[in-house]
Amino acid sequence: MSGDETTGAMVEGEDTSLLIVEDDKPFLTRLARAMETRGFVVETAESVEEAVAKARAHPPAYAVVDMRLGDGNGLDVVAVIREKRNDARAIILTGYGNIATAVTAVKLGAVDYLSKPADADDVFAALTRTSGERAAPPENPMSADRVRWEHIQRVYEMCDRNVSETARRLNMHRRTLQRILAKRAPR
């Protein structure tokens, strides 16, 4: 997180319950504190299992969910929240951003998708943005290499992470694809 976490607007309304699901304890603590100063009533969870139990017991109005947790996928938490409470506003946080995952997150009911490290102001803006309001365009759009990598990742996800099928669909040699998948995403 960057900047002064106590600055920023306050959330107003009847239900300000917020579930933050994150397995990075220091980040979880800082984000929870920052969201409390903005008017949210915060519950935290460090695993999919704990988050699902809390979401079923008391479905939150808002949620910030890490994509990759020690015991599973944060998208499962979003699905449970949306199943229990259709008006919930959930966002996904991840250090492994790619378009395919963002699309899946939105289909499951997430209202936004932020790459780590996201600061408290970014999280607050994503949670409180009105449905018709658009996020500002990125100052640093993706490079052509990154767009190519994102496309490969999307096809790979569509093929249920089957390397051979993905290579066939992309008209690419399987070993070439494996080398691309083993590398970090280009900037």
From TrEMBL:
UniProtKB keywords: DNA-binding, Phosphoprotein, Transcription, Transcription regulation, Two-component regulatory system
Domain Response regulatory residues, every copy: 17-131
SUPFAM superfamilies named among the record's database cross-references: CheY-like
Positions of post-translational 4-aspartylphosphate modification: D66
Protein's UniProt keywords contain Phosphoprotein: yes
Regions that span the bilayer: none
Signal peptide: none
UniProt-listed CDD domains: REC_RegA-like (cd17563)
Protein name per Swiss-Prot or TrEMBL: ActR/PrrA/RegA family redox response regulator transcription factor
Organism from which the protein derives: Mesorhizobium argentiipisi
